[in-house]
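User: what does the whole thing look like in 3D?
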Amino acid sequence: MTYETTRANEGCVLQIRGELDAVSVPEIRGTLDRLAADGIKRVIVDLGDLRLIDSSGVGALVSLYKRVGALGGRVSVRGLRDQPLAIFRLLKLDRVLAPEDAVAAA
Amino acid sequence: MGQVIKLEVVGELEHRDIALRTVSAACRLAYARQAHIPEARETLAYVMSAVGEAFNNIAVHGYRGGPAGMVEICIAVGPSRLAVELRDYGLSFDPRSVPMPDELPESGMGVFIISSMMDEVEYRPGHPNVLRLVKRLGVAGGSSHLGSGLEAKGERTEGEGDDLRNDSSK
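Assistant: Here's the predicted 3D structure for the full assembly of 276 residues, as structure tokens:
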């Protein structure tokens, strides 16, 4: 897994590539914690180049969604496809975390 | 004529990718013979998701608190189905004790993902624990009712909620 954050104004784009799973989540947890604690109003998580996600990866993103939301911000996911899209759809998280993608696919 | 692929890896998360890459290659082998089936990518996503969660459970829960044992993986590629069997020698668990994930889950999704993504799921606690996953080729989607497809075989064990495994088989 590789990732990078790009900040602009009060927002941030977090791009995650490769695999977000039980092995790689610890590598990105510090970044997620900082995003959640900084009071950023808008976080876009770009998963267009994510090949695989497991329940640990989903849990990390849901945790970010909850923590940013608790401080009045918003997290959304974009670019879901293949295996990550299947997981998000199964858990019905695409409608919550990726509403723009869900509408586009409807 | 079917093919059987066998793999034995250490039950640690760092070795999960080896297992998944092998299963992925087996899926591609299965579909290489059935190029007319359009659901290949979807099926690959389902099988990879289920096997990944199963391996996580073994590494994180089954072999917790001690040196990791081995995970024996047997992949049977047939003309109409792909079967993956995982055997481990760690702690057993009762899949029926695991609650459904909530609306915004941060954990406890593994069993739900496994049972939803596969067409047949059977778990036999013991020494070894045996988890058998079957995906019918050319059939999109998982079990008809999400989350209830994981059936435990053998003696029922007591669960520990979100923590999937217990010591009852040891």
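In plain terms: The two ends of chain B are 39 Å apart (CA to CA). The longest helix of chain B spans residues 40-62.
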